[in-house]
C-alpha cells in the first residue's frame, strides 16, 4: 500500500523516466500564491524538491525548499520548515559543502521542540540521507551504510538509491554550484 509521499514519488519517477515534465506541484504553488493559501504553498513547495531532485533539477529544488522554509517560518510554523530545511541540508551535502553537517543542528532543534506529525518520517529519512552523504564525502563507508539503513519511506529509499548510483558515476557529469 502506497502512502501519499510514495504515490507522489512513483509518479515523479515514471514521469522522469518517460522524459516528461515532473512539475507536479507547480499548479498548487501557483494557486496558493494567487489566493494567499500560504500553508498549501508550503505543502506543495516542500514536496516539489523530491521531484526536482529525481529529475536532476538542482537549482529549482533548492529554490522551492528555500521558499517553503521561508514561508513556514514567516507564518510561525517551524515544524513545517523542518522538511524543506532537511532538503536544503541534503543538497548542501550533495554539493560537498562543509556546512552541511552544521545545517542539521537547526533541524534537530526543530524536531526536539515541535511535533512534526506526518512530516516526521520523511524529515527523519532526509536527515539520515544527509548524514549518509556527509559520511560518503568523508569516505566513511560504514557510517554511510548505517545511515542509509535507517531510511523507512520507500520513495526516499528509491531516490537515495538513484543518488548513490549517480554519485558513483559523478552524477552523470552534473555538478553542483555553490551559491
Name the shape in a single word: globular
Instruction: Determine Rg (CA atoms, Å).
Output: 15 Å
Determine the number of helices (DSSP H or I, runs of at least 4 residues).
Answer: 9
Secondary structure class reads: mainly alpha
The rounded distance between the terminal residues' Cα atoms is 39 Å
Low-confidence stretches: 6-19, 31-35, 168-179
Helix fraction? over 70%
Mean pLDDT: 77
* % residues in beta strands: under 5%
**From N to C, what is the helix and strand string?**
HHHHHHHHH
Strand count, sense and barrel status of the largest sheet are: none
**What is the β-strand count?**
0
Walk me through the structure.
The chain is mainly α and 179 residues long. Helix content is 73%, strand content 0%. It has nine helices and no strands. It is globular and about 45 Å long. Mean pLDDT is 77; it is low at 6-19, 31-35 and 168-179.
Task: List the topology elements.
Elements: H1 4-17, H2 26-35, H3 38-54, H4 58-74, H5 78-94, H6 100-113, H7 120-137, H8 141-149, H9 154-168
Helix pairs in contact: 1-3, 1-9, 2-3, 3-4, 3-5, 4-5, 5-6, 5-7, 6-7, 7-8
Amino acid at each position: 500500500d502506497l502512502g501519499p509521499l510514495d504515490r507522489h514519488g512513483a509518479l515523479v519517477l515514471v514521469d522522469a523516466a518517460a522524459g516528461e515534465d515532473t512539475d507536479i506541484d507547480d499548479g498548487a504553488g501557483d494557486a496558493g500564491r494567487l489566493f494567499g493559501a500560504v500553508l498549501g504553498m508550503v505543502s506543495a513547495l516542500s514536496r516539489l524538491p523530491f521531484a526536482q531532485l529525481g529529475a536532476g533539477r538542482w537549482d529549482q529544488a533548492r529554490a522551492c525548499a528555500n521558499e517553503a522554509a521561508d514561508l513556514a517560518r514567516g507564518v510561525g510554523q517551524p515544524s513545517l520548515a523542518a522538511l524543506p530545511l532537511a532538503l536544503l541540508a541534503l543538497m548542501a551535502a550533495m554539493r560537498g559543502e562543509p556546512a552541511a553537517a552544521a545545517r542539521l543542528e537547526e533541524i534537530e532543534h526543530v524536531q526536539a521542540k515541535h511535533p512534526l506529525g506526518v512530516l516526521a518520517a520523511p524529515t527523519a529519512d532526509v536527515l539520515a540521507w544527509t548524514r549518509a552523504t556527509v559520511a560518503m564525502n568523508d569516505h566513511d563507508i560504514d557510517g554511510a551504510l548505517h545511515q542509509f539503513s535507517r531510511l523507512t519511506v520507500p520513495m526516499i529509499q528509491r531516490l537515495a538509491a538513484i543518488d548513490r548510483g549517480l554519485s558513483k558515476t559523478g552524477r552523470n557529469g552534473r555538478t553542483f554550484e555553490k551559491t
